[in-house]
Amino acid sequence: MPEEVLFKFERSMERNEIADYLRSVADSIDGDDDLTLEAGDESVTMSPPARPTFEIKAERETSSSGGPAELSVEFELEWDEGSEGGDGSGGELRIE
Question: Could you list the residue range(s) of the whole structural domain that residue 37 is in?
């Protein structure tokens, strides 16, 4: 299925700045609010359903040139357009 990027933002930031953004996202989700992302002249508003699929992925990408590996943690909410979400699988999640 082709992917259409609706919004993209990437910038190096202090950890506390990132935490503030993540708290804003969490507050929107917890309050059943729409989620609006804005940067410059780009903007998108999305309405996550009551039960989206939540995915967390930790990755290590090694460089083919022998440079240092790049580590990442990705948080993703997924749902089908127009759906109310569904049941996920994979057991309980713990974040410490």
Answer: 15-78
Task: Pick the closest to residue 46 from 86, 18, 88, 78 (CA basis).
Answer: 78
Contact (Cβ atoms closer than 8 angstroms) between residue 31 and residue 47: no
pLDDT tens string 46-88: 999 999 999 999 999 998 888 899 999 999 999 998 876 555 5
Is position 27 within any domain? Answer: yes
Number of domains in the chain: 1
Distance (Å, whole) CA 7 – CA 38: 8
In-domain check, residue 96: no
State the Cα–Cα distance between residues 42 and 21, nearest whole angstrom: 17
pTM of the entire predicted model: 0.79
Whether 86 is covered by a domain: the verdict is: no
